[in-house]
Design goal:
This protein is of the alpha+beta class. It has four helices and 16 strands. Helices cover 22% and strands 40% of the residues. The structure holds 2-acetamido-2-deoxy-beta-D-glucopyranose (4 copies).
Length: 250
């Protein structure tokens, strides 16, 4: 929908420019002909809106971020107005910035941020899991442009899900390799989640899984009793204190 809107807005710009009442937007980095500004996370985008009709020199400029008014300092409104998006964050994806005169919203210019980012894979993870417990290895694969492939390896060769008794799921945000019952002979290994993206190439996250012997479950009842005692003591302490506080207030 936005794609269809942008050229229309630019046509307006040229139309109104001919009538010498132009609002123009310049950006760093510069926008493509269809109004998209390519940027990446943590970068800075600066937008400068200029109004150059002498007769309306006093007219204030207004910036909208996705239709919401951007609050501007007083000295950043007349004739020229500048906004900076710094640093660019995920929320800025596909955000539209529009500039127009406060007095006349018809004559407006919009640009859209096109934020690209690789999957946010993290440092190698060491995981210790008990025999017979369940295990989830989660790899963040969300990226723009989207990753073209996700491959999991176990000790260097692609995981054979059936042989390893594991399940692989992918919800677009995470690729998760899991098993409901860990066995040392099958699962103690080094895993790699390898993503490939047309823009950022191959990225890998490493998981080292150690399987420990099954232990007895932590005794819950004594712990609950302990917590109850602590809570009761606290309540009593506050209650007796409260009497004193109330007394001195009277
Ligand atoms: C807004 O400006 C355009 C030309 O720049 C003009 O045709 C139009 O009438 C103006 N609208 C208002 C409400 O002043
Ligand atoms: C955004 O940038 C990416 C990478 O350059 C490009 O593939 C994509 O077409 C751009 N999207 C739009 C809507 O311009
Ligand atoms: C796994 O076990 C090996 C050998 O016992 C040890 O060297 C390594 O540090 C352990 N890794 C983790 C993540 O606990
Ligand atoms: C993976 O390699 C480690 C170290 O060579 C080995 O101890 C482990 O058994 C292997 N895991 C599997 C499932 O083959």
């Amino acid at each position: 929908m936005k794609l269809a809107l942008i050229p229309a807005i630019f046509n307006c710009l040229f139309y109104f420019a001919a009538q010498t009442s132009a609002v123009t937007v310049e950006s760093v980095p510069s926008a493509s002909s269809d109004g998209y500004i390519h940027t990446e996370l943590d970068k800075t985008v600066s937008l400068t809106c200029t109004h150059d009709a002498a007769s309306e020199a006093d007219d204030e400029l207004v910036w909208l971020r996705n239709d919401a008014l951007v609050s501007l300092k007083e000295e950043n409104k007349k004739g020229q107005s500048r906004v900076c998006i710094s640093p660019v964050i995920l929320k800025d994806r596909e955000t539209t910035f529009t500039c127009h005169l406060r007095s006349n919203a018809t004559n407006r210019v919009s640009v859209v941020l096109n934020v690209t980012y690789p999957p946010s894979l993290t440092e190698p993870e060491g995981i210790t899991v008990e025999e017979e417990a369940s295990m989830f290895l989660r790899c963040a694969i969300e990226a723009y442009p989207p990753v073209t492939s996700v491959v999991w390896t176990l000790n260097g060769t692609e995981v054979d899900l059936k042989a390893a008794q594991m399940t692989l799921t992918n919800d677009g945000l995470f690729s998760t390799l899991s098993t409901v019952k860990v066995q040392r002979s099958l699962h103690q290994a080094t895993y790699q989640c390898i993503t490939d993206s047309p823009m950022y190439g191959a990225r890998t996250q490493v998981f080292t899984v150690n399987v420990t012997d099954k232990t007895l479950k932590f005794p819950l009842y004594p712990m609950i009793a302990g917590i109850v005692v602590v809570c009761l003591t606290t309540i009593l302490a506050v209650a007796s204190r409260w009497k004193k506080i109330v007394k001195c207030c009277k």
